[in-house]
TrEMBL record:
Annotated source species: Roseicella aerolata
Protein name per its UniProtKB record: Cysteine desulfurase
Span of domain Aminotransferase class V: 7-372
Pfam families: Aminotran_5
Keywords from the UniProt entry: 2Fe-2S, Aminotransferase, Iron, Iron-sulfur, Metal-binding, Pyridoxal phosphate, Transferase
Family: Belongs to the class-V pyridoxal-phosphate-dependent aminotransferase family. NifS/IscS subfamily.
Cofactor(s) required for function per UniProt: pyridoxal 5'-phosphate
Length: 390
């Protein structure tokens, strides 16, 4: 750790840009800054070629074709385009399929997109999850019928890190004749992803979750059989008419390089990160009797821990007592109030325990010394806070 810099363990919120990604992007800001759609001249064509090379790298990471990749501003836009785009296109074709099925633990942008569609005549179905955070496949199967248009299930949960059985969910979608969308922002580079194996029709990605830049993401849209979407907004018809607007070539190049690194080094990263997660957890469990890990321990992404401290303690107080460590609480800010995480509530965790929960995200640049030191700092903070609140 650099002097005076906190230990960063919030890699689910965002990852640092890999130096190799930054190096790949820099020339497209400083030397060739042309609009990639200005193909009438040499600099524009060079920018276009760089964007298309990046598109190919993104596709390679998930086993897709380059022409199936639509560049967006991030996973929130990708999720909105996938869900609302599929629904509105189906409505334009007067389809009788109006049911959209998801889980209670999905990202807010998925849940809100689906709820928005209720005002347009669609039927949202939000299913509970098991106590370990995984989908109940029997309940999912029971929710599907010939009215089902789309299933949207996150590959890796952004709070509790559980890995859903995407292949099984994709198979259920196909049996029902429904589309399958997965938000894979937290999965890319952390677990193997292949759109053919999981039978995904739509898959969302985000650059800043895989050591790439913020402000860029992608949506995989299957070509065979072709998935049709209605665009969210009007414009010049870029990105196959699905996402108008001038592409940011440096950001696209950065996402492409991040995808290349994830595809070639991701599994090596995963093994090392899992070891550091276990080192951190072992040290913390020894120092904090009664510590609990939320979500499945077996079906879990390598760098994630969602941990509830024995009370009486408050996660916000814990973080204030440990400013040397950057983590996040299991809570989401709503207006001016901090409320217990809806994901933890969906697991049946009582409000008081949800308020005593921290999310840990260990990443590519976390060292073993960082993991051990962070565990010691958080254990000390817990002892001070718990003592003060008794």
């Amino acid at each position: 750790m650099r002097p005076n810099r906190p230990i960063y363990l919030d890699n689910h919120a965002t990852t640092p840009v890999d130096p190799r990604v930054l190096a790949a992007m820099r020339p497209w800001w400083e030397e060739n800054f042309a609009n990639p759609h200005s193909v009438e001249h040499a600099m524009g064509r060079a920018a276009e070629e760089a964007v298309e090379a990046a598109r190919a790298e993104i596709a390679e990471m998930i086993g897709a074709e380059a022409r199936e990749i639509i560049l967006t501003s991030g996973a929130t836009e990708s999720n909105n385009l996938a869900i609302k785009g599929a629904a509105r296109f189906a409505a334009s074709q007067e389809s009788g399929r109006r049911r959209i099925v998801t889980l209670a633990t999905e990202h807010k942008c998925v849940l809100e997109s689906i709820r928005d569609l209720a005002a347009e005549g669609f039927e949202p179905v939000v299913l509970p999850v098991r106590p370990d955070g995984l989908a109940d496949l029997d309940a999912l199967r029971a929710a599907l019928d010939d009215r089902t248009l789309l299933i949207s299930v996150m590959a890796v949960n952004n709070e509790i890190g559980v890995v859903q059985d995407l292949a099984a969910i994709g198979a259920l979608a196909k049996e029902a004749g429904a589309l399958f969308h997965t938000d894979a922002a937290q999965a890319a580079g952390r677990i193997p992803l292949d759109v053919e194996e999981i039978r995904a029709d739509l898959l969302s990605l985000s650059g800043h979750k895989i050591y790439g830049p913020k402000g860029i993401g992608a949506l995989y849209v299957r070509r065979r059989p072709r998935v049709r979407l209605a665009p969210l907004f009007s414009g010049g018809g870029q990105e196959r008419g699905l996402r108008s607007g001038t592409l940011a070539a440096p950001l696209a190049v950065g996402l492409g390089e991040a995808a290349r690194i994830a595809a070639t080094e991701g599994m090596l990263d995963a093994g090392r990160i899992a070891g550091q997660r276990d080192l951190f957890l072992d040290a913390l469990e020894k120092a904090v009797p009664g510590l609990r890990v939320n979500g499945s321990r077996e079906q879990r992404v390598p760098g994630n821990l969602n941990i509830t401290f024995p009370g009486p303690v408050d996660a916000q107080a814990l973080m204030r007592a440990a400013p040397e460590v950057c983590v996040s609480s299991g809570s989401a800010c709503s207006s001016a109030e901090v409320e217990p995480s809806y994901v933890l509530r969906a697991l049946g965790i009582p409000e008081a325990e949800a308020r005593a929960t921290l999310r840990i995200g260990i990443g590519r640049f976390t060292s073993p010394a960082d993991a051990e030191q962070a565990a010691a700092i958080l254990a000390g903070a817990w002892r001070r806070v718990a003592s003060a609140e008794r």
